[in-house]
Structures
1.
Amino acid sequence: MKLLVIEDEISLRQSIVDYFTQSGFLCEQAGTFQEGVQKADDFQYDCIILDINLPGGNGLQLLDHLRKDKKTDGVIIISARDAVEDRIAGLDLGADDYLTKPFHLSELNARVKALIRRKYGSGSSVLEAGSLKLDLAAKTVLVQDSLVSFTKNEFELLLFLITNQNRVVSRQAIAEHLYGEQTDNLASFDFVYSHIKNLKKKLKEKGCGDMLQAVYGLGYKLVV
């Protein structure tokens, strides 16, 4: 799961990043309006935690930019402003949730998880694709009702493929999903092939290796 925290208060931003990193999220951060726009434009996130008051701009303007650009990243607004008008404006612009400062990180965590369940699992923490069942909460995978052990990256890759089932995803898109902005520093995407190979081997051992297919010159897709 990829998370972008756009917050100008350094201590709060770092606390959020540290908390979610320990929970297994891939976290990136931005401290200004322009930095937030650039990262949101360049990468896709499962959830963006967005402050309203930002140096160089306004979080609501950033949200409006995302939605006009047809970006579907989940957005939770965090703000010290508790005015009803701000809540309504944020939700009208396409925010998924609104949390007033100060808040407990455990509550923010619960809201992020609820957003992800709504986004990917129709309210359930279990995603299904054919004979695959992926539990977001337990971080487990059942293949034909048999528990299969996956590494963290394999789990995240399988989740990415399930949420894009029957669609081709490129090696670059996979790399960005697994490593975020660090992808720019990678010499090649050869590791993607290794992850795909391991994932397909484990699926094949359970009798469904044909679900994961390579599309020559384009990438990979999970066929259901």
2.
Amino acid sequence: MYRTIICGIGMGSRQTANRLLRRAAALVDEGGNIVVTHVIENIPHRHLTELPEAFETTAIVDAEKKLAALCRELGIPARVEVRIGVAASALVALARETSADLILLSSHVSDITDYVFSSIVEKVVRHAGCSVLIDRRPDHAEGLTSRAEDTGPL
């Protein structure tokens, strides 16, 4: 169905990450590519002095390890790409760079900041040059999972 899928995963719910990765694996063509992506949002310069010097490097390495381990556990071959920047822009740029034909994301419960600033998902949908699939199923609506560790944080 799709040659290259960008699978955007946050570091929150393991259940959501599992669901997105399984969906990507089901949708990718044989011989196709899945690029599991996490974007660490830019930190305003005024806060950089309050953080350890290696904060960004540590955050990138930590996210890469967690995502690679999850892919191995699920038996899903994927390339892991962690970037720093504005999430929507980074996802759209990566899709363009890899000639992706699908970006797979999960939505969250909207709050007031989404109405004021617009959500990441909305920005990706508006600016992506490829199809975007939005998983809208909230984790609490899925019922019981097969393994207890599937429900914790990533």
3.
Amino acid sequence: MLLTLTTRMTATRVPATDLGHLLHKHPDKAQTFSTSAGPAHVFYPRADEDVCTAALLLEVDPVALSRAHRGRDTVVADYVNDGPYAAGSMLAVALSRVFTTAMNGRCDTRPELAAGPIPLAVRVPSAPCRGGHELPARLFGPLGWRVEAAPIPLDAQFAEWGESPYVDLRLEGEVRLADALRQLYVLLPVLDDAKHYYVGEDEVDKLLRAGGDWLATHPERDLISSRYLKHRRTFVRTALQRLTELDGSRSEDAERAEPSEHTERPLAAVRRDAVVAALREVGARTVLDLGCGGGALLRALVEEPSFTAIVGADVSPRALDIAARWHDRLPERVRERVTLRQSSLVYGDTSLRGHDAAVLMEVVEHVDAERLPALERSVFGVARPAHVVVTTPNTEHNVRFPGLVGLRHPDHRFEWTRAEFSAWAEDVCARFGYTAALRPVGPDDPEVGPPTQLALFSRTEDV
């Protein structure tokens, strides 16, 4: 099985061999790693200032593989078996084993490079594609990739035999490397519609860890979840429920139907990035995630070591139970930084005082208008953090979502225009002693503005 990753020199990034920093694999050194499927080799067919290509080659012994899995619930059959040759779950496991640090988005030598998109070309010369040769475009296209999936004939000398269920898959795009690796980890087995190992409940967690930033809003999320979990109905239902809860009610239908020019990253992920960037900007170390739901933002916050104490608060026991399941699986040293608590945003909770920053991400629009003053008093008057980050939909942008009628979600009590949001922020500042900077989140349409609007409040005595 073979997979290659290629990047090129750009005006702002020289040389292309920076790819070695991101992958934590030196271009001048061929390396071999042991995996459950066989040895995985990493080498660089080309590595110079202009172009750098890293290759992952997985060697599998088909006889040993068949014997090891005989009688088990797997896709590995006796004698005739494409497992060792066609990219699928075994290559996905090798990706995770070999490029763990890169998949987590870490690069200590070049953190700014790991945080942003790079020009990237991916090739998988033999990818099983069960479901039609248009399936790769349906899976990778919404994630911002340009997709080419060339059918491979059963035999080039006998055209009448037709095409095989394999494609020569090529992807190109401006993508963050960690995102690309996570997408491949999930979608290669989905293309194959098979896995070489037993699928248990922990596989739901793996899916959410790798797909949490993009799967909730993917138009094929049901198909992806079903295939990744080998059509185990109980697990699929759990995954879909948790995906909905991850963005809470925030995984809105409108976001799933964003215009094609806005699909570089799902809006939910762009929004989380904007919130984390605002918290970094003000130097926050202790953070409140108010209305945390199932923990979508918490997952992003724990990735930032500078946030030393994080509190997720929500009124819903069900949402907190979902967040707790994720929290319990964290490494101990990470888990100690995160606290979950039940708290209502419309009742003042003095135990939430003393934090550097609080976040209300897609929360205010879920509160009845007559109860909004109580939320304002609770957050800006009682908890009174040094900074507050608020995001909410821009209702003017709704005309850019095809098929959307009315509000973006049935649980929204209202949605503000840019002028209404500005007026609300100005009123809050006047009553509670804050200043506010308003910013767009997502593509800022010249006519109707961005899909999401953000306000960064700062307490006046701290300015």
